Amino acid sequence: MTGAGLVTNGAQRQTAREMARLRRRYALRHVAARCGVYGAAVLAALVCALPFLWSLVSAFKQNRDLYNPDNDPFTFNEPATPDHVTYLFTDTPFLRFVGNTLLVGALVVVLTLVLALPAAYSLARLNRPWGTPMGIAIFLVYLVPPSLLFLSLTRVVVALGLEDTLWSMVVVYPTITVPVSVWLLIGFLKAVPKDVEEQAMVDGYSRLGAFLRTVLPLVFPGIVAVVVFSFTLTASEFVYALAFVSASPKMVVSTGVPTQLIRGDVFFWQSLQAATVIMAVPIAFVFNLFLDRFVTGFTMGAVKT
């Protein structure tokens, strides 16, 4: 082998070693980056889970354990007790509050879909210059603070004879849920090509039939977003629930639990935390089941309008 060949082979080996070193460096960087991402995700999850963990532990703590500032709030320094959870179910109408919340939430979700779907479909399909401004105007209604509206809405509730009834909340809550739902659904419906409906109508379907059979399945993620948003907003709303219902058997969780477990300067902390955990776990479970569709519904509705 000539000197030139030896030099070439040496250069090739040097280049190969350099490439291998670069690959190892990039691989280490990739692993470090992934570990950093997962570490940050785990840390964020732990930070978000700490309030729930504190509530779960506090619900089973004895009074002398909870009110001792020297004790660790995240562990049982005294033996755990179910007395406060039992008190929630036996000495307060908690199950009635839960039932009222589920009933009002379900009715509001149905009413929201009945009103928002036709409105969003009309605004998305109308070829008018005022279609988009009207959609924005509908959304701006949601930004009006409830504290400015409940006085006028109280007159409506009284005129309908619905004071101190669950129907008062069923009538009032759509004023909050419908505007945002229309906004979300407009964005999703605009993402559906008109050709889909036109082809269905050519095949013999009516406008309504084409909407139900072709458009509705395509906007299902948006519908899921509307359902989750409407129910969670209804379950957590406080101002209207407090203003329109004062009778304890007709209260929902957001007003009934504080009313029953906060008496003057006496706070039943363990029972309050137990109610928080009991309400949060089912909602979080259902939310996680539809998380992908919920996020898709919000992002699509936000960027397609």
Describe the secondary structure blueprint for this structure.
Elements: H1 3-59, H2 63-66, H3 83-90, H4 94-125, H5 131-142, H6 146-159, H7 166-172, H8 174-190, H9 194-202, H10 207-218, H11 220-236, H12 239-244, H13 253-261, E1 262-263, E2 266-267, H14 269-289, H15 291-303
Antiparallel strand pairs: 1-2
Assigned CATH architecture of the largest domain: Orthogonal Bundle
Strand order of the largest sheet: 1-2
Sheet bearing the most strands, described?
2 strands, antiparallel
CATH superfamily of the largest domain: MetI-like
> Topology as H/E string?
HHHHHHHHHHHHHEEHH
Indicate the CATH class of the largest domain.
Mainly Alpha
Helix-strand makeup class: mainly alpha
Could you explain the architecture of this structure?
- The chain contains 15 helices and two strands.
- By secondary structure, it is mainly alpha-helical.
- The chain folds into two domains: 64 residues; 221 residues, MetI-like fold.
- Strands 1-2 form a two-stranded antiparallel sheet.
- The protein is flat.
- 29% of the residues are buried.
- The C terminus is likely disordered.
